[in-house]
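Subject: two folds for Thursday's group meeting

Dear M.,

Sorry for the delay on this. The cluster queue was jammed most of the week, so I only got both jobs back this morning. I'm pasting them in the order they finished. Each block is the input sequence followed by the predicted structure tokens. Could you check whether the formatting survives your parser before we put anything on slides? The first protein is the one we discussed after the seminar.
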Amino acid sequence: MIAVTTFAGRKVALFGLGGSGLATAKALLAGGADVTAWDDNPDSVAKANADGVKTADLRGIDWASQAALVLSPGVPLTHPKPHWSVDLARAAGVEIIGDVELFVRERRAHAPGCAFIAITGTNGKSTTTALIAHILRSSGRDTQLGGNIGTAVLTLDPPRDDRFYVVECSSYQIDLAPTINPTAGILLNLTPDHLDRHGTMQHYADVKERLVAGSGTAIVGVDDSYSSVIADRLERAGVAVDRISKRSPLRNGYYLAGTDIVQAKEGEVVSLYSLDGIDTLKGSHNAQNAAAAIAACLAVGVSAEDIRSGLMSFPGLKHRMQPVGRKGRVVFVNDSKATNAEAAAPALSSYDRIFWIAGGLPKAGGIASLAPLFPRIVKAYLIGEAAPEFASTLGDAVPYEISSTLDRAVAHAAAEAEADGGDCAVMLSPACASFDQFRNFEVRGDYFVSLVAALEGISMLIEPEKGT
């Protein structure tokens, strides 16, 4: 745990007692703050009380005596309207911050020179975050991985000069981190997302820009117009900018040329790393992720050889285009995190011959947008509630069967892929939510891995979860 000493002896109001909120309350208490916490969910309040956190309805406290409101990132700050706790804090002139801002202040107070890499973007940030952490760890560095990727940042080990922090940041977290100042900050891309919480695309982009604006080195993907404008604006402001692209050559920056990541300096191009043969980094979207990771690792002093070794050994992000097993010329890919068509597209575009397992609880729009990728699909195996709808969309364009359940789909797809005799993938990329048959996409993905592991003659690339 990181004890938050920067609020020692001061009163702090905290709203939101989910996983990260409760961890934040404990970190503030450990650092000597006087914390009063609350949540609209009575069960969360009861759990906090049981863990020794003082709770009280924040509508009844003396706001003039509070040093800050620490807000859970899941609580609306601006849109569709500010939460009532935000209104009370603003009326009293109390600053409103989140757990990432508390981490930033602790780092600044105790180990300002320690390496801190922060990652944001609409798509790809979890893979990029995991890849950077893997490169650092495989090179023997003390690496702390947290943030939006699933581990609350204040549960990490305390800042120390020889530690490396890799923190995934959502737009909600950045909005509550006004002084964020990573050694290397990454903005991968921007497409419309979370507009219910940010109001407009421009406001969403402005929030994301804060992360790179405060960075020692700003690493910015320039394949969309919003991010490209941000890169230009930062450079004019004197920020060191490394541009990255998966689509176009750059005069200065890192980009994809064939299967190589190359670096250009004033038009002079040097090939740095080949992604050829790295199954966990297939696809142009992963080339962007890799380019960002390479730039960030170079910025914090990782050697070229350590980066190369880390790229080659990257196991992939669990449930996201994750190769889990091989049988002859067939690779089995767990892409259970693809819960809509847009999320499934990168995996489908990364393999030439696919035995596709899809379906579950359908999302609006179905899979019609994936039609340009249908020629890559040898056969589809449809499961769950979406099966009839998906069958109608596939029509005569793709052979399919309605397998109904995942176990039948895996068995049939594996047998037919092996009989095909060529290089191909059996891929779970459902383009659907899981809730008709599974508790969440993680359970669905783990079950897929266990089914693959049970196939005769399979060579597993990962260990299946116990109990699945």
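Second protein, same layout:
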Amino acid sequence: MSNLETEPEELVCPPSGARGIEILEPRDVPLGGPRAMGVRRTLPQKARSLIGAWCFVDHYGPERTAMDVPPHPHTGLQTVSWLFSGEIEHRDGVGSHAVIVPGGLNLMTAGRGIAHSEVSLPGTPAPLLHGAQLWVALPDADRHTDPFFESYTPAAITVGDATLRVFLGSLAGSTSSARVFTELLGAQVDLPAGASVDLDVDERFEFGVLLDTGEVSVDGVGVPVSHLAYVPPGSSRLTLTAGATDARLLLIGGVPLGEQIVMWWNFIGRTHEEIAEYREDWESGRRFAPVTGYDGDALPAPVLPPIRLKPRG
């Protein structure tokens, strides 16, 4: 998915180190204008920009709408697509063509540069779209790797009363085969009303809990729907407790990245000059192989801000 903001904010993301659970509020972002599908964005924001190497979290739906995101570029990151309902057709510049379906991970590694499109499959009435789009920042040593695409369908496992689907990394004996470049975790957790589960986790990891539906608390701290709870490193156990209704959530985490990154539009780099070069390459038809099979024009890049992109704080 693209960041379609016409004036995207430049972000330099320092390593995080705050103690205690934080609740990050979402902000509404229209994709493609006020009549297009809206998303609720919890990462990045000024209070916190990274959870492990996770750097971007959009939560959308359920809504009967059609997604139509034209070809657009990415650098220095991996896109993680996860659906609860609906189907989305993916095409990219390395020739991948896949249909994203609920319960299946679609992971695109942009590396030095890739372009892709995402379009809802046609249907009457409009499809019920519901899911999340997340980005993972690639570490400096791997961010210029060749781009590639892969899919993975995790098996559902049971831990106490909880049902887990581990789509990245390892948890509770389940390990994803999808390739990552830092130590990461990504999983869907379903909890019936009133149930609680204790998860043994890596104490080096920091975590994010995005509540999709229902009610849940994280180590006793309540999380509103569509909000993201941040849990700092230092604990080897994470307790999730459902309220009066069934809960469904995404659990993300990882070892703190320990690097500063510059995010602007759909690019991740390390300097102003890199971001400007990526933008110029996209506008000039360099670096990014074209996406075939999409009926329409590619997405133009926004204008760079009139000041130099530089670190904050």
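Two things I noticed about the second structure. Confidence is low (pLDDT under 50) at residues 12-19. The longest strand covers residues 54-64.

Cheers,
T.
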